[in-house]
Amino acid sequence: MGQVGRFAWVLWSSVLTISSLICLIIVAIGCIHPKQAKDLYMFQIDLKNLTSSPNSAIDTTLEAITGGHINQFVQALQEGNQSGNLQDFYTIGLWNYCAGNNPHDGVYNTTYCSKPRGGFWFDPIELWGLNETDIGKHPPHRLQQTLDIYQKASLWMQILYLLAICTGILQLLVGLLACCSRLGSCIAWLLTGVSLLFTLAASITSTTLFATLAGTFKVTFKAYGVYSHMGRHIYIATWLAVTLSLFAGVSWLLNCFCFPGDRARRVPARTAGPVAAANSAYSYRPVTAGKIPEVSDHVPLLICPSPPQVHDRQDYRPYQQQRQQHQYHHHHNIYPETHEMR
């Protein structure tokens, strides 16, 4: 029953680990293919309703307060849109970005996806052709500050996701040894904890980073018809991976401490006595030797000699004769020369 229970628990822990890996892989390959870019993206920018003037007097006042070169930046962006250099929307993933047109509300046709590469970060100034203009060289301060943070953190975010996937795969391979020993379960539990830390750090980094980027675009460009929002499905996948990895860690921990290893079956019981230990299957004895006869561990009580019926007015000393013989032999062993001379 113990071995069957251990196998079932290892299988359940492995299922949790595999599910967490699947969620991480979904995050990693999201937005790579045009079909996936429709739902699996971390951040999206919609430029279909771009206008060069604020939509209301409040937006005009807000633009004057936040200031900078926002109006000039949007005008340069509008010129690029009229020349056909801009797409209706842009979706950003972990390794690349995709773009397409939006003919109707809620309909997004992805027409292009960039090649995935390590260290990728979405640079709107270069992508929209504003880097050669004066306003592109001096973008709004808030936007430039957020883009600098995004550029520095994007590489670490990619590394964290890769480490989470690699440690999850390694933990799954080590988990196969858990069916044979408790040590395998303990090592699998440690690797699950490491994978959980990487997954949690990657999820926090991506969520915080793109939430900051979405907030910057909303505050800076919403008055000009530029809308941005975070993806939904990909963040469900990354936080689901964190949850499943946490459950897997708890499951491996219970497997490590709640199920006995093979040593409990190999070591004979100490209460069985030396005879049972010698006759056990794991004791050593010559092949030609037979089975050790059963010997009782209990020592029989000494039987005192019966006292004589007549004492002849002397004290009864039942062990006097044995004591005298013992003293005689002891003296003979110490002084043998004396006895020889006699």
UniProtKB/TrEMBL annotation:
Give TM segment ranges.
6-32, 159-184, 190-213, 234-254
Keyword DNA repair attributed: no
Cellular component annotations (GO), alphabetically ordered: cell cortex of cell tip; plasma membrane
- Give the GO biological process terms: fungal-type cell wall organization
User: What keywords would UniProt list here?
Assistant: Membrane, Transmembrane, Transmembrane helix
Task: State one Pfam family annotation.
Answer: SUR7
By its UniProt entry, which InterPro entries does this protein fall under?
Answer: SUR7/Rim9-like_fungi, SUR7_domain
Q: Does the keyword Chaperone apply?
A: no
List, alphabetically, the PANTHER family matched. Answer: CELL MEMBRANE PROTEIN YLR413W-RELATED, INTEGRAL MEMBRANE PROTEIN (AFU_ORTHOLOGUE AFUA_6G07470)
Q: What is this protein called?
A: Integral membrane protein
Species annotation? Aspergillus violaceofuscus (strain CBS 115571)
